[in-house]
Specification:
The complex is a heterodimer. By secondary structure, chain A is mainly alpha-helical. Chain A folds into 2 domains: 1-97, RNA polymerase sigma factor, region 2, helix turn helix motif (Rna Polymerase Sigma Factor, Chain: A); 117-190, Winged helix-like DNA-binding domain superfamily/Winged helix DNA-binding domain (Arc Repressor Mutant, subunit A), CATH 1.10.10.10. Chain A has helices at 9-17, 21-43, 46-62, 73-92, 94-98, 125-138, 141-152, 157-164, 168-185. In chain A, helix 8 packs across helix 9. Chain A is globular, with a radius of gyration of 18 Å. In chain B, helix 5 packs antiparallel against helix 7. Classes of the chains: A mainly alpha, B mainly alpha. The A-B interface holds A 16, 18-19, 21, 24-25, 28, 32-33, 36-37, 40, 50, 53-54, 57-58, 61-62, 64-65, 108, 111, 115-116, 125, 128-130, 132-133, 136, 150-152, 157, 172, 175-176, 179-180, 182-183, 186, 189-190 and B 1-3, 7-8, 12-15, 17-19, 21-26, 28-31, 34-35, 37-39, 41-43, 45-47, 52-56.
């Protein structure tokens, strides 16, 4: 299979399956940042995130010979990541797994009209970013995962549902709650 | 920043404002050593399984390469066999007895000597011919043993000279030109030829005197050779009791 700069992720993975190591290089370049940040957000521990990151890519390498295109590559990759993450939670912090149960937390409020008001004090972009990350960190794992999958991997609700092994409605609900809480937390900015 | 249009339009799962802010915040990248380790593992996995790598390419070339290898091998074998067979066909089926020198020259200038003959004579002594007198062993069309030079071959008559059969008949030797390489070795045979040539026109009595003289001097081989020639030339002449 011929490979070009415009090749899709799935084509690159097929090329790699057939022995094209350069295809893997390109695939890795495209997804290493998103996957790494996904793990960082979910683990909250850099060392664990790095270990999981390496494990997931190693699993992908090992599975290359049996790879067939059944879904988007990102869905496949983050499904591997999600499963590995669940194993990690089970092995290291059982309590965390509970947060993947659909306990939605506080009800999502309607966006406040006051959010449209300009804050008197404007934060620097860096401070806002740090605040967003702090808000994200405070989210339950499942909601945070849904948010990160959407913004890091560019997944749709359906793809998030497949990657995390839940129904579309559950995925959508998680995403809605995550966005609602973040908006509340960033109220002054809005 | 205003509330996103998507949210206002009833799509609560997309918030571009948050997305932009998140992209500004999220810039972490895996450390370089992880990149290197993972890429190395990916390349190693390819390299460790050469048959998996480019398997389609290998599959497409496996058959033509195999056929080419078989053809090359077959042609080589046939060519080799043809060359060997050609040697057998071009080799003369039978040779007349020849002088040692000639035998040496022949083998030097004609390396296509028949292989079967060569093997036969390597394994057993040269057969005696129905000729009188018998030529020396090396002069009886001895095939060249493998790895022996013309000089080695020419040296054979010197050994055969010790036996009565070693004497070569003069007429056969007369018009042969010995090559220089073998000349020194085959000189005894040439001397005998000269002796017989010297007595060619002499009377039978002179022949008998010379033969007796050679015997007295202990030159038995030369005496026997001369006696054999005498019997050929003068078959009716009576022999003295001492020479019978």
């Amino acid at each position: 299979m011929a490979r070009s700069a415009d090749s899709s992720d799935e084509d690159l993975m097929l090329c790699y399956r057939d022995g094209d190591a350069g295809a893997f290089d390109e695939l890795y370049r495209r997804h290493k940042g998103g996957l790494y940040r996904y793990l960082l957000r979910q683990c909250r521990d850099t060392a664990a995130a790095e270990e999981l990151f390496q494990d997931i890519w190693t699993n992908l390498i090992r599975a290359r010979r049996s790879y067939t295109v059944t879904a988007k590559f990102t869905t496949y990759l983050y499904r591997l990541a999600h499963n590995r993450l669940i194993d990690h939670y089970r092995g290291h912090a059982r309590g965390v797994v509970l947060s993947f149960d659909d306990q939605e937390g506080p009800a999502l409020e309607e966006p406040s009209t006051s959010g449209q008001e300009q804050p008197e004090t404007r934060y620097e972009s860096k401070q806002l970013a740090a605040r967003l990350l702090a808000q994200l960190k405070a989210l339950p794992e499942a909601q945070r995962e849904a948010f990160v999958l959407q913004y890091e991997a560019g997944m749709t609700v359906e793809e998030i549902a497949i990657a995390t092994g839940v129904s579309r409605e559950t995925a959508k609900s998680r995403l809605r709650y995550a966005l609602g809480k973040l908006r509340l937390g960033m109220g002054e900015w809005r | 920043m205003a509330m996103s249009d998507e949210l206002r339009d009833g799509n609560p799962t997309v918030d571009p404002g948050l997305a932009r802010l998140y992209r500004e915040a999220a810039r972490e990248q895996p450390p370089a050593h992880l990149d290197a380790a993972i890429l190395a593992a990916a390349h190693r996995d390819i390299g460790a399984r050469p048959w998996a790598m480019g398997s389609a390419w290998l599959r497409s070339w496996r058959l033509p390469v195999s056929i080419a290898a078989v053809v090359v091998l077959s042609v080589s074998l046939v060519t080799l066999m043809f060359d060997e067979g050609g040697d057998r066909l071009t080799a003369p089926p039978h040779r007349t007895p020849d002088s040692p020198a000639k035998a040496g020259v022949d083998r030097e200038s004609a390396p296509q000597a028949a292989i079967p003959e060569r093997r036969e004579t390597e394994s057993k002594p040269a057969p005696l011919r129905d000729m009188a007198p018998q030529p020396p062993p090396a002069a009886m069309d001895l095939p060249a043993p493998a790895g022996k030079s013309a000089a080695d071959l020419a040296r054979a008559p010197a050994v055969g000279e010790e036996t009565p059969r070693a004497a070569a008949p003069a007429p056969l030797m007369r018009n042969r030109a010995a090559p220089e390489a073998a000349a020194s070795v085959v000189r005894p045979a040439a001397q005998k030829s000269a002796l017989i040539r010297e007595y060619e026109n002499r009377t039978p009595e002179k022949w008998l005197e010379k033969i007796a003289e050679l015997r007295r001097d202990g030159k038995t081989a030369e005496a026997d050779e001369m006696l054999a020639e005498f019997k050929k030339r003068f078959p009716e002449h009576p022999l003295p009791a001492a020479l019978r």
